[in-house]
Amino acid sequence: MAPAPHTAVKQELLVRYLDFWTPSALGSPRPATYLDSTVYGPPAAVRVFTEFADLLAGRQLWMLVAGAALPQASVDGLRVEAAPPDLAGAVGRGPVLAHLTAPVDAAVTAAVAAARAGELLLVSEPDGAGADRDVRQPLHDAGFDHVVAVELVDDAGRAELVRFATGSIKSLERFKDELWAVDQFAGVRYRDPTEPDAVPLDIANEPHPGPLRRALLVHLAGGQARTVNELREYALTRTLFRPADVNRALTPLLSRGALARDPERGRLTGTTVIRLAR
């Protein structure tokens, strides 16, 4: 039986990110740890790890499963075990990726954040956050430098919240790339949980830039000019969008005179300065 649309999106997003994380983690001199407390995650993770059997040889990857059946695995270097009750204590000293269902004890998130190359993919029901509370903040408070949050919304309005937290800009960029590259599962769209009036966006390699245009205008509303590179960093770290989406958002704003640029003509480069038009 095919998984429900929300689960299908979460599972594909996990698999896509594991394709990036696994070879990187196995390149560390320390054993890597993968924690999973979801139902759909462990079997999918074993399939990914099996594809990297050549890299696992001579290495050690601990896969700790909490609250679900242990998947079968027969790959040299991969150890699959039930997670201990003290998940925080199970966090290793090497690279860590924790794929967990909220709520999660604060000690666990803090332990993952403190680990070398610790990253967290947290799935949960949305909790009504909006303009008065940012669902990213608890993970920032736990010690993660970068957090992205997205709601998966179906046609009936049912939503599930996904948060990704990391200390690595490179990992954040890769997660954003994979977020927009998943298959367009019927009826599931993305919504920014920090914008209470946000309209869900279709999953696409080139998402509609309307919300990014509005976010950039708000960001520039203080009157301070920003380079295109600074706006790309803002899009990466504070919105659902990627740095590559910024030019598509800026072009119509410049064309209709909402923004001004310096130099006034030529190709938009990273050093082009953007400001609100006077």
Explain how this protein is built:
The protein has ten helices and eleven strands. It has two domains: 5-191, Rossmann fold (3-Layer(aba) Sandwich), CATH 3.40.50; 210-276, Arc Repressor Mutant, subunit A (Orthogonal Bundle), CATH 1.10.10. Strand 6 (146-153) and strand 7 form a beta hairpin. Strands 3-2-1-4-5-7-6-8 form an eight-stranded mixed β-sheet, sandwiched between helices. A three-stranded antiparallel β-sheet has the order 9-11-10. The protein is of the alpha/beta class and 278 residues long.
According to CATH, the fold-level topology of the largest domain is Rossmann fold
Please count the helical segments.
10
Unreliable runs, pLDDT <50, ≥5 residues? none
Percentage of residues in helical conformation: 25-40%
Please give the CATH architecture of the largest domain.
3-Layer(aba) Sandwich
Beta-strand content estimate:
15-25%
Span between N and C termini? 58 Å
Mean pLDDT figure: 93
* Radius of gyration based on Cα positions: 20 Å
Descriptors for this entry?
single chain, alpha/beta, Rossmann fold, 10 helices
Concise synopsis of the structure shown:
It contains ten helices and eleven strands. With 278 residues, it is an alpha/beta fold. Strand 6 and strand 7 form a beta hairpin.
Blueprint (SSEs and pairs):
Blueprint lengths: L4 H22 L5 E5 L4 H11 L1 H4 L4 E5 L12 E5 L4 H4 L5 E6 L4 H9 L3 E7 L12 H6 L3 E8 L5 E8 L2 H13 L7 E3 L18 H11 L5 E2 H11 L7 H10 L3 E4 L10 E4 L2
Parallel strand pairs: 1-2, 1-4, 2-3, 4-5
Antiparallel strand pairs: 5-7, 6-7, 6-8, 9-11, 10-11
Helix pairs in contact: 1-2, 1-7, 8-10
